[in-house]
User: Fold these one by one.
Assistant:
Number 1:
Amino acid sequence: MTIAIYQSAMMNIVLARDEAPDVRTLRLQFADEADRVRFFQKYRVGMFGLYGVPGAGESAFCVASPPTRTGYVECTFRRTGRVTAAIRDREVGQAVTFRGPYGNSFPIESWKGRAIVFIAGGIGLPPIRSVIWNVLDRPGDFGPVTIVYGARTVADLVYKDELADWGARPDVKLVTAVDPGGETPDWKGQVGFVPFVLDHAAPPGAGAVALVCGPPIMIKFTLPVLLKLGFAPKDVYTTLENRMKCGVGQCGRCNVGSTYVCRDGPVFTLDQLRHMPAADM
Amino acid sequence: MKILDADKLPDLAAVLAAAGYRVVAPVRDGAQVRMAEWKPGLAIDAGPIPANSVKEFLFPRCEVIARYSLDGDSFAPQPAPVDAPKTAVLAVRPCDAAAMVALDKVFNWEYRDDAWNARREATTLVALVCAAADDECFCTSVGGAPDARLGADAVLRCADGASKFILEALGEKGQALLAAAAGVLADGDARPDPPASVPVRFDSKAVTDWCGENFESPLWRDLGLACLGCGSCAYACPVCHCFDIQDEGTRSEAVRLRNWDTCGLALFTQHSGGHNPRPDQAARWRQRVMHKFRYFVERFGGLACTGCGRCARLCPARLAISQVCREIDEARKAAAK
């Protein structure tokens, strides 16, 4: 007998793409079909997994691909430490370990027919990219889509190919921005911080849903703009990340107050965030 | 009534070992008494409260949870079998036995930890009714008692002026242990000694209520300033269960390890990007008290503290969670007036 909850699936890297300095996307295929079936029975957008390299360790990231694409799992991560460096060093044809999916999900079935506004900063786009594709893969189910995405510099924008794709679609309004000083001579997008750019884009908030993900400082200044635009706090979603080890509520470190990010989250509404102690985030 | 002479605990251990049990008992180790695996010749001393709790025999300090063979850039999973030997724990304190019941909830919180459950199933806890308590004991403030039976499979009780033990089975595992120990147990009568007297030091309900309203309090800063951040309190605690997962490897093999960890250490919540949601010792003390007296109550309907007092006995800064709780209780009472 082993401890079943800590046995990972083996996943083969079938595609690796550098998105930005130190940021890479991996497309992973389950080595065992039974693991794939089990994963997609449970997986909903917003859930996360623990990706690892034996000998280096495991790290928690979101699943960046939607459940509408059932052949693979994608993750996008920044190399910041020992584990992410080891995952970064794996090449196409090699394997990583994966366990999950864990956590709650965005309740997208309750958003049918409604306008959806996605707001992301930097490496905050991957956790909601799965939702964007999930929505776009189901034409007719949802209302108009707006994406506001900013990064420090042009080089720091992730999913550059997909941004071009989204920008060309008639069913998506895409606004990209870089921080002042981060633009290049041929930059066609906006220059400014995300909250400012969102304020100018001014997507109507009444009846709409907003998803926000990015650095804490961006979220802090974006929330008041969303309220000003008429979004209801119960319709504004974000996804939190904290250091995690087990992913299943037992290792004791990801909680914000009494709320466990791994079990009660990672997806929370602004309404819920207001009842969580800011000093613990 | 099953009776054992007070000096015959090693005989009980020996007969259980012969019956195939791994025997864990309070063993003298220099100036300390520690819960340790008993071997023939080791003296058992059930007098002092052991320095360590029983949790390490059900939840080891370090445990392999996954194993891989490595070959260049490829790897393959290997079996990582759970070690769950049939175990008898002699003279476990009621506070420790109760703590195992609290941990049952954590390790079966939707996701079931097979290792914990296998070891729980394989372990028979023989609780010792405390005949003496010290100034750090506060089981009666957190719902326990020196003669509480929660979590125990059998009970040892001092009798006839500490000259004998009465051994009583409380369930199937306890009955099996008594049957295995029949050779050293006598039938007879004895008068149980009174259990220790442990005064109620605070009202835990008041602490739970206070925690719900005092996420921001100068108390956390004061505690944080005094705390050295060594983590002894958590490692000695029978209920503290926070853990880390780390990999270790050679060129040919890697193991994924689960190690004890604690919210008292700065790295516990440190993000790789640099942010730390609990940036100072004040935030970590808040987490420690809140988890034990508020969050655990909200999640599982009970406290994550059984009043053993080990954290206070070991603390190099002489911080005592019971004293903290008493101050909270008193402050609350004063505020209500």
Number 2:
Amino acid sequence: MSMLSRRNILKIGGAAAALPLLGRGAYAQEPLKVGFVLIGTPDDNGWNHGHDMGRQAMEDALGDKVTSTVVTNVAEGPDSERVFRELAQQGHKLIFGTSFGFGDYMLKVAKEFPDVKFEWATGNATAPNLSTYNAKFHEGRAVLGTIAGMMTETNKLAYIGSIPIPEVRMGINSFAIAARKVNPDVSIKVVYIDSWFDPAKEADATRALIDQGVDIFASHMDGPVSLQIAEERGIIGGFGQGADMSAFAPKAQLTSIIDVWGPHYIEAAQQVLDGTWVESSTWPGLKEGEVVIGPYNEKIPADVVAAAEKVRMGIIDGSLHPFAGPIMDNAGTERVAEGDIIDDGEFWAVDWYAAGVEA
Amino acid sequence: MQFRLEKRQEPSRFMLYATPVAAVVLTMVLGAIIFSLIGFDGLGAVREIFLTPLINPLKWQDLAVKASPLIIIAVGLSIGYRANVWNIGAEGQYIVGGLAGTGVALATWEMTGWWLLPLMIIAGIAGGMAYAAVPALLRVKFKVNEILTTLMLTYVSVQLLNYLVLGPWINPTGYGQAQTRLFNADQTLPYIIPGTIVQLGTPIALLVALVAWVLMSKSMFGFQIRVVGLAPHAARYGGFSEGKTIWLALLVGGGLAGLAGVLEVAGPFGRMVPSFPTNYGFTAIIVAFLGRLNPLGIVVAGIVLAITFVGGQVAQTTIGLPFPAVGLFQAMMLFLLLAGDILVRYRLRRVVPLAVAEDVA
Amino acid sequence: MVDTCDPTAETSRTMAEKMIGTGLKDIVRGEGRQMGNAKFVVSNLSTRKLGHFDVAVEGVSFSVRAGEILGIAGVAGNGQNALLDALSGEVEAHAATAIVLDGQPLGQLGTTARRKHGLCAVPEERNGHAAVGDFSLAENTILTARDRMSMVVMGLINSGAARTYTGKVITEFAVKALGPASLAGSLSGGNLQKYIMGREILQRPSVLVVSQPTWGVDAGAAAAIHQALVDLAAEGSAIVVISQDLDELLVLCDTMAVINSGRLSASKPVGTVTVDEIGLLMGGVHGDKTAEGAHAVPA
């Protein structure tokens, strides 16, 4: 937390610097041009879909006051630098980069265009005209872990990881801790695909895990592949990631974590229109409604739904923390003592897996 | 009316240079038609993809940045292709070159000095060469097809990259994110045109093309490469060892791909990340052929390909052309180029039906 | 139509003269030529089989004196190509001393080094072996004449020198080509052969080994090539001609040997050998251990 709060102090300075620009709003009848840079395409029905839904929500809410441009399939790297510069050159005054790997280039371009506001999803550094925004997906994973732990018949769960970075690792830990809380016998096999989107590799991994007896999956990939295979193989099921994927796996999707970016996008655009936008880092979760648990599949027994809801409500009202001690890691060391938690600042430094995880 | 293909006595030099131009023009025409038919602004797409990057001076720097690695890699590949050595794994050599440069940068990140960048560049070239030496050894010693080995080693290099960036080389202050430290100022390519993003990689690319052109057309090295590729038997008679030539071709191709890799990581990237592989190694194959395997032609071809990339992004942001359209344009261009190649060696003759001929007589 | 005639009443020579429209020139030999000492000595030369259907050479020995033309006759496919590759340096010999030129052992040198020592060779196959069809004539000149004719300086090609030398070959050997820039593949077989022979002969090699020097060449061009070979010998070079054309060998050569299944018979002066003898040798009846000793040709 320390790191992030120190930055939050900076935003006061940033706001002061932005003041001279406010005059513009007076005669700005033209709609605000908002750019969205996506790593994939909105039809992935996952991560990118979620951001595109957020964009549409922004357009619906703000109407004529905004227009938006979406650039898809932008590779993380220098190609993205060109896209951000292009959008800024074309007069976009608010630009969202929706992948971690865009950050270096957003920071570069942000320096060149001080009057353009940039927002970096899942980022870890800010600038006077660059904010970060993220969502506490791991809170939702505690709900999924509860369902998986109670419903598994083989006691073998699996987690299709994308890239082993803290955010993914902590999603796995949250899932595992919740699952072991309701069923101490479960193990969680983790497979990394080394990509956010690689349907072929994801499919292979899913099949191999099913053959090893896994009957419930969680995933951190952009897309519904593991769910589709779960549906095809008739195992108990899995969870939608980033969006409701029940259309692809009506039987296998037990529930889903839905990213709701709309309110954030509406707020950010409104702030730019009003001239009140300031450098910030936001990281809301279930409570704020940015992370939402989708409808429960009817095959989930009522007691499991009740347990899942209890976890969800607990996190929302603050009575339950997904990383409350005691937490043992998978090597048997106590990482978090009774009565302690992993706070938002410590979150990013975690390099271990919770008990029960086989990675 | 009927047409017949007739073999030319000599390949047409005119067609050799006219067909790539025709392929580009035809791509524009067909592209405009196809995209209009499926409901996009076809003419607009062609204008944004092919003309905007050329007309808008703001885009020139992007062209330079995008074309430079393509040119360097394609020049190396073209030398191999001339020798009938089919290195299609430049992507892997590019990655390993980038990794080798990164290794030097991370080992010296607390140091300063003008010598850091040259050392990284040498390491990058050596890395690419070493990675191409594996298929060379397998081909020369065991007659293993280099098409397979170079391609498969590309996948190995991606695994190596992921392992290093997530493991031993991970940025200790990067919140566990998959990336290395940022290189320091002495480990980063200088900008050569103030106020732009054009770095030292661009003049290096032009120099590489120029040197390769002199070597290929004026030196025994180029002669050896060409004769081995055209007539291996005659090469042996002329005193050129096929094995040595395969080694040379792969080492030069790998070394240049490695150079592109280190210039890219020390330039636009500034650090090593898992998204470092950007298909330059594969796109360079199109560039090499579009440039007729001629280093100077490759400079032009590299710029053409860069135009389609840069213009593709312009078209996405201005007229909402979907991203795969860019790939479609590139694929169409390569297809038309290869199809047009037939006109270099054959001519189209109108066949007058016999009955008509008799009537006239 | 130049003429009509009764083929039975004509010799092949008169027929040929009618076809090319001029009288055939006789080969002019300097009278009373002095053969020098043994210049090119090959002893017990053997090569490895390269492929399943290849014929390797086994224990080949011969020697050629300065000024002498040695003919090697034989039915096609009896190791002629392997012998040429072994002599040119495309295939190395087991021992350096297997091939000796003026006392210098060349057996384990490659083609480039052998050429520098004065040993040039012309293989049977023109397109793709002796010349590259997609190269210009000037570039084909660089293929074999670069060192002896100083066309390379510090790894860079002196294309002016290559063009000049190629022009000389075109003129002196009456090659029908537009110039040094013509593609080798655009020349007719006979013209390409004239060019290749000219390219090697004008380098004035100490030893020239040629296979099928006039194969597919019209009679006039063949005579010119023969004359050039004789002239080269007269200047003191040693020449080895491998050919399936017995008439050619009998006209051209001073001594003859026969190759059969990769083995070479002893060489004999052309005047002392009859066509019948050669025929027997070509059919495989020669002095090897498996054949009947009675049929062996006395050395």
Number 3:
Amino acid sequence: MDGRRGADDLDVLYAGCYRRLVVQMYAICGVMADAEDAVQEAFITAIRKRRTLQAVQNPEAWIRTVALHRLHHGWRHQAAERLPKPAVDVGPEHVALVTALGLLDAGQREVVVLHHLADLSVAEIAADLGLPVGTVKSRLGRGRARLGELLAEREEPSHG
Amino acid sequence: MADWNSLREVGEDLTPPAFDSLVRTARSRERRTRIAAVTGALALVAGAAVGIGLTRDDPGPPEPVHDPAPVVELPGGVRLLPDPADGEDVTTLEAGRYRVPLDDVLAIEVDLPDGSHVEGDGLYLSSPTFLLKSEIATDRFGVAKDWCHGDDIVPVGPTFDDLVQAIRTQPGLLVEAPRPVTVGGAPGQYLRVRIDPTVDASPCRDGQINLPGIHGTNNNVTPAYVGDWWVVDAGGRRVVLQGLCDPCEGDPLEFVEEVVRGVSFRQTG
């Protein structure tokens, strides 16, 4: 009944993982404002469904899944259509990586980010996204290879 | 190869919004969803709005479906509210008379139609035709410190008259003259509460006005809100029953009046 009940625990989770989750969403969608929106909306959902959240084993994973869900469903998921312009002051190396991620196939990008940035195993990614393990492995392999190519292409002119 | 650690450091430059602001937004949406759902259903019952859109947020990931909770019936046929299923805030009820605890020692008993919902411990009872909020006006009950911004509640004085007077005079509200009522044998006052049509709610958070209540569970409503408030003295306890309608068309509050007419009080401890 009390909107504050259970929210105090979430407060700790929020303080601990908000930035981490935003960076992960940013790497996937390419737009910092959208990433922050998605994570904030996920926490709002968590507050509203706090009883549900109390029953899950990994609340951060639950919130990340909700944030991804937000990105998937019309949350201006436009990284593939435009070059990202980070809202925060980030260095060129970050822009290069996020730009390259934005050029990946959306499915590959998500898996690559969850594996390399969120440090999730293939099995965890498969469970979170509801995909077969084999699909995650193939997307991860192709995505990693393509990302390497894109970053190499970007570095070549600067060394010329 | 990719410098993932460097990307992680981007997060250090972020300034998260205050967690309390997310809590407020969540609470606001909960209230809006409850009230809009009931109001939308009321409009359909009245045949006034075919195809009306209910305000619903994206439900998020799919969640498990639970079987109905077992019914515990007391002597006299009154039922206890079932415990909500794990992870659920709302429980659907069969038709019957239910005991709804207000605290450890006082409860109301009320007839509810089939398909009614109870939320949490019974703070909200609803059906397609009404939304009833029942609570004891403890010493934390008060009026909005700022009816437009913020969530702070200023507790009113300890007496029954303090409470009625505070509700009547909260800025932002237009409250009709109270009239004496009896609910379940408990004497009290009935108040019809609207939003003052002269106030501009557009600069308020979500365009809504804060109602009197208890910090954490008080409601915020649109200018189209109409509320029925029964403030009664149940054996020395101040009890507030509210019928909420927002946005409100016609006179749908007749349904909640019928429910309140059937309320009785029960000492439980």
